[in-house]
Amino acid sequence: MDARQHFSALLEHLQAQVVGEEGFTLAYGAEVSSFIRFNQGQVRQAGDVQQIYVTLSLYQGQRHAESKLALSGVLDEDLPRLQQIVLRLRGVLPTLSDDPYLRLNREAWRSELAGEAAPLDSAAMAQQIVVAAAGLDLVGFLAVGPQYQGFASSWGAFGWYAASSFNFEFSLFHDNGQAVKSTYAGEQWDAQAFARKLDGARQQLAFLGRPAKALQPGAYRAYLTPAALEELVSLCCWGFGAQALASGSSPLQRLFNGKVELSPLVTIDERIEGGLAPAFTSEGPRQPLRLISQGRAGERLVSSRSAAEYGLIANGACSGEYPLSLHMRGGELDEPDVLQRLGTGLYIGNLWYGNFSDLPAARLTGMTRFATFWVEDGQIQAPLNTMRFDDSLFDFLGPQLEALTREPELLLPGGTYGARQSGSMALPGALLSRFTLTL
Questions:
Q1: Containing H/E element for 344?
Q2: Which of 74, 82, 97, 335 is 20 to 30 A from 178 in CA distance terms?
Q3: What is the chain's percent helix, strand, coil content, to nearest 5?
Q4: How far apart are the first and last CA of the chain?
Q5: Does the pTM exceed 0.90?
Q6: Residue 356 bridge partners (DSSP)
Q7: pLDDT tens digits for 211-240?
């Protein structure tokens, strides 16, 4: 029995169990994943994970309770367990208070999407990686396989999503202990595209043998790769949520209040097609949204609870009200021209971590790491010592933004705690007239 048939059988069973004014929602998540760990360019650990989790919510009036459980995929085992949860939740409901902000979507919507790409062969990928990494001290982690998500309700809602993807995060280490970090992710493995990624990292690795350059704190021209930009943008994504904006806690408050604008080069969408996330949430069908339009605030992400609390219209946002498939439009800068356009300044391949130093000002701080280079006259000269940055999103995506690379890069979340994360982000690289290092 495949995942969709399993989900449909669970749904059919639950529909026969509800009584009186009861209703339910059923969220389904499953994966069949291969995880392969590399060290010194060789496979050191490999394993497979197949798992299914469901979250059942039972409703009666304004009262609701939920429970999450792991299933085996064998109906003779799973249906009795699901029945036990129904009985348990039914016993809990009378003890609960009404939820004044409960707004259930009782529409009988339908959304179904299953990827048609050829199955991914993790063994073949691993073999290509080992061959390509010959002579290199490559350390990496490959996660690959299909993921399934479903959602259904007793009121006729049905959503199903299935897609296969891979995410390979790797570092090349120099003899001196320094490293270049890179990622390659997508839905279809392309050996030539991976070879280009690895070759780019190999070229940067050669510069790590040079003496590191120490810089004084100050503002420098800089280029942020898509991976570096992701570290900064992802910190602020929850700021697009209606609850965060209505409560005044959003780091994007000044943008949405009209007090600041970003560069007209910046257009950001929450997209449905082209991303790696379901076209639905537990709130209902997602809507494509223009979050930032040519530097100006656009639409916000509104869940049903925020819609009820603040008198807004829900648009299918998840309960956390953050984008699931964020896409920043590219610009006119061709990637091969990045160093020449940068001239003299910082090439920042990755950032160690990020945090807020001044949330209302969208001011972010963190450390550089993994192959940050000093560039002079369009040529990499030396690696840079680790330094702290402190700058505002309103500035480096505002007046300090000079150009964006033409093709946004697809970036997938690397988290595997409990399960592989879903969703995606597509970002270009960003050329900045100045970026502030503090120590």
A1: none
A2: 335
A3: 25, 40, 35
A4: 58
A5: yes
A6: 364
A7: 999 899 999 999 999 999 999 999 999 999
